[in-house]
Design goal:
The complex is a heterodimer of chains A (212) and B (240). Chain A has 212 residues and is mainly alpha-helical. Chain A has nine helices and two strands. Chain A has a two-stranded antiparallel sheet. The longest helix of chain A is centred in the C-terminal third of the chain and has 20 residues. The termini of chain A are close together. Chain B is of the alpha/beta class and 240 residues long. Helix content of chain B is 41%, strand content 17%. In chain B, strand 3, helix 3 and strand 4 form a beta-alpha-beta unit. The chains are: A mainly alpha (212), B alpha/beta (240).
């Protein structure tokens, strides 16, 4: 099993995320129509299509890669997920401007990304947002690495935690974003942002499993 | 003069709001740029487009950004990472339309970024007071009780609709041009004495036709300012 993560692996991750969002586009939009403005799936699909169009030829390093991904998302998604996912990748970039990316550096980059999302959206755990999937995913990643796991193993643990975090958003009352206007009526639905964020971590799990 | 940027999910909404605001901007309005709508012309916002609009609107005196809701705010915050001089940019918490109107009028009067931002931040107050939901519309100290007035005059407002938006904007722009602290009070209603540089406060007084007002001023150019304001009021702001 490979100990390091190549830039090509990270490009594959972004492509896999696009494919997953395309595949689940209607589901994401349906979730968003329950408690939001019914555009999360189509907005994310459009933004990620624009991203993938800029990956051929792929940027030389991980730093450049995530700068391109982030800038493209902030300008081509349209909804709140643009600045949020855009900030996630823009913050990951500098943490990956290193010669070799391993489970520890990738974990640090993911943490920088999630901290950027939290700062941008001012959401806390339990607000029924993408943070509810991403934050437990990070903790699981770090715990796996501390137990000696490589990046592929850490991503497996993170994906499981993200899915659990996503499922836990169902009974919550939204406190951020358009869904917060609904108050109590937002309970009983999965959060669309936590759902797409889980696709992001699952895409990383699948990519690193294939690369191993 | 500071520049303004209107950020909205909808291009038509932003353009109409800017049109409404510029109606009160006089002959020398501030630069207002629109950053609105999604990538395909649908509803949405674009942080890169907002950053470009901010840079275009900035003449060196800074930019105030007015936003509608949700992702407009997130995208504007993200845009600050891409602009040339983020230290000269402020994001206003004002409601979109009221904030734009206040910003255009105050900026046209030559106020600096901090002053325009402060004025806009209270943009919701005028509507609240007008609807009587504020609970704080009572009579307070009149101008005479301030005891520091250099000069003042009293005049009767003759405009058919009173000091409505357009004459109020003219008053504020004129008052802002002088190095003087201009204040105005509606003597008939016993209103608060308010700053003659605040469009929203002036509109909130709701001064009607036939009302007697007292305008006072302190500062080096107090006399000149009062002379011009007196002419404006007595001429019905050119509306007769």
């Amino acid at each position: 099993m490979s100990e390091t993560v190549s830039t090509a692996d990270l490009v594959s991750w972004i492509r896999a995320f696009r494919d997953a969002v395309q595949q689940h586009k209607d589901e994401l939009t349906r979730l968003d129509s329950e408690i939001g403005d019914a555009d999360h799936g189509s907005n994310m699909a459009r933004g990620l299509d624009a991203v993938v169009a800029k990956l051929d030829p792929a940027p030389a390093g991980a730093g450049d890669l995530f700068k391109t991904v982030g800038m493209t998302l902030v300008s081509s998604v349209g909804g709140a997920s643009g600045p949020l996912y855009g900030t996630f990748f823009l913050r990951m970039g500098p943490a990956l401007s290193v010669d070799e990316v391993d489970a520890t550096t990738l974990g640090a980059a993911l943490r920088a990304g999630v901290e950027g999302v939290v700062a941008r959206g001012k959401a806390e755990l339990g607000d029924k947002t993408m943070v509810d999937a991403l934050s437990p995913a990070l903790d699981a990643w770090d715990a796996a690495v501390a137990d000696g796991s490589d990046a592929a193993g850490a991503a497996r643990a993170a994906a499981e935690a993200a899915a659990r975090g996503r499922d836990a958003t169902e009974p919550l009352v939204a406190r951020k974003g358009r869904a917060s206007y609904l108050g109590e009526r937002s309970a009983g639905h999965l959060d669309p942002g936590a759902t797409s964020a889980t696709l992001l971590i699952e895409a990383l799990r699948d990519t690193l499993a294939d690369a191993a | 003069m500071i520049g303004l940027v209107a950020v909205s999910h909808s291009r038509v909404l932003a353009e109409a709001a800017v049109e409404l605001a510029l109606q009160m901007g006089g002959e020398n309005p501030p630069t207002v740029r629109v950053a609105a709508g999604g990538p395909d012309g649908d509803l949405g916002t674009d942080a890169v487009a907002i950053a470009a609009a901010i840079d275009e609107a900035d003449s060196g005196d800074g930019v105030l950004v007015l936003m509608d809701l949700g992702s407009a705010i997130l995208s504007a915050e993200t845009a600050l990472e891409f602009v040339a001089a983020p230290e000269r940019v402020r994001l206003s918490p004002a409601p979109f339309v009221e904030g734009l109107v206040a910003a255009v009028v105050t900026a046209a009067g030559g106020a600096d970024l901090a002053t325009v931002a402060t004025e806009c931040a209270t943009a919701a107050d005028a509507k609240r007071r007008q609807l009587g939901t504020d609970g704080d519309t009572g009579v307070s100290a009149s101008g005479a009780e301030r005891g520091e007035t250099d000069a003042s005059f009293e005049a009767v407002v003759t405009n058919p609709s009173g000091l409505h938006a357009r004459p109020a904007a003219t008053f504020v722009k004129t008052a802002s041009r002088y190095d003087a602290d201009v204040r105005i009070v509606d003597l008939d209603t016993g209103s608060d004495e308010i700053s003659g540089r605040s469009l929203l406060a002036l509109m909130a007084l709701g001064i009607r036709r036939g009302s007697r007002v007292r305008v006072s001023a302190t500062g080096p150019e107090a006399q000149t300012a009062l002379a011009e304001l007196r002419t404006l009021i007595e001429d019905g702001f050119g509306e007769r």
